[in-house]
Amino acid sequence: MNIEHLYRQVIMDHxxxxxxxxxxxxxxxxxxxxxxxxxxxxxTVQVKVKDHQIIDVKHQGTGCSICCSxxxxxxxxxxxxxxxxxxxxLHEFYELIKGYPFNPDILKGxxxxxxxxxQFPARIKCATLAWKAAEQAILNIKxxxxxx
Length: 148
Ligand code: FES
Known about the structure:
The chain has one domain (3-142): Sufe protein. Chain: A (Alpha-Beta Complex). It is built from four helices and three strands, in the order H-E-E-E-H-H-H. The chain has helices at 3-16, 65-78, 83-97, 124-146, and strands at 30-35, 42-50, 53-62. A hairpin with a 6-residue loop joins strand 1 and strand 2 (42-50). Helix 1 (3-16) packs across helix 2. It is globular. It binds FE2/S2 (inorganic) cluster (FES). Residues 36, 39, 41, 63-64, 66-67, 126, 129 line the site of FE2/S2 (inorganic) cluster.
């Protein structure tokens, strides 16, 4: 099995059996809804933070296999991280998606399977939609905290 085949398999596994899928009616979560202007697909992400630690991440969306699998991978990658770690991970993920070198000590696990996406610019928004929603949720939480 070559590496591209393995990456494709990981993506399909997350697409068919997504982790942390489903949105909760719970206002202790910060909820952010984004859509992909290029295709109209939508993604909702919920993040729950306690003591500067991400204790839960949920997602629900309509989209292609890249988008939906990436939401699942994002939830697993960011869960149980501190807010500072999450921002570093997000930064490294965006570097990877653009085809730039990324720090494998920071960005670990299944997220690396999206490194081929840089060759398909039309899919970059698919791969990053859930990550952008999570980033916005974390920024909103930080802002809420600094406002009181
Ligand atoms: Fe719509 Fe990928 S084609 S999110």
